[in-house]
Amino acid sequence: MYGFVSPDGIHWTKTKEIIPYRKGWRHAMDSQNVGFWSEAEGQYVCYFRTWTDPDRLRSVSRSTSKDFITWTDPVEMKPNMPGEHLYTTQTHPYFRAPHIYIALATRFVPGRVPTATDGPLGETKEPNVTDICFMSSRAGSTHYDRLFPEAFIRPGLDESRWTNRANYAALNVVPISPTQMMIHHRSGSDYFLRIDGFISATGNATAGELVTKPLTFKGERLTLNLSTTARGSAQVEIQDADGKPIKGFALDDCTPLIGDKIAMDVAWKGNPSLTSLAGKTVRLRFVMKECDLYSLVFR
Questions:
Q1: Between 3.10.20.30, 2.120.10.10, 2.40.50.140, 3.20.20.190, what CATH number should domain 2-194 receive?
Q2: What is the rounded CA–CA span in Å between residue 208 and residue 244?
Q3: Structure pTM?
Q4: Is pLDDT of 22 > 90?
């Protein structure tokens, strides 16, 4: 892998090989590799295509550099599920939280032929199909989180998307308005999501609960990215490290949250500020009914 430098972003000069190729990799780096300056890490980061050993799965490794000249020995990220090929991860900092890295990896399934119906579906010369998965990592981490391992973007109704190597996302999830962001697909299709709308914790018609791990925070208020139905709602209880409700912040003290907003502040009766709890170990208990919780932040 070679680097290129430019003083103006238009005229580029090739540098030396920055991440040397290893003979044991066999066909590594033969798809899109991603490098960027990480503000959260204070260094350059590169995610590139390698292979797992000994099962020979398409995978990804990570290397870092303080000066874009000298790079660390690559570390295997090993995001693959058993037998799963992943590449073109498009790993990049999420624009709302640069310490969180988003990856929209192509999942390659060799030797798989979709069921033919009225047309040439499944009659491709190369019986391989792909879809796109969602993964995440954090600044400095050497692994990906795969809490949701199923496909994030399916091939869909277009038969051409069921042919060999047809599903790839372009680099970067792009904000297009205060409430919406976009993913571009190689087919020319665009996928639109609400801000933070990759995943959600969902409460159905029967109220469900979610309790966080113990955490500490800085700030004065809790803000949620939340969507309810006309009948739905959400409430938040703040507990101590042992899971006991903190006086004044119990579930019954919380004003029900109703509506659909990217930023909705949580309020507890008689407690306008969370300053007294900042820095202490707490848990958050959410009770939700017909509600999607996309993200939370303390401000």
A1: 2.120.10.10
A2: 19
A3: 0.90
A4: no
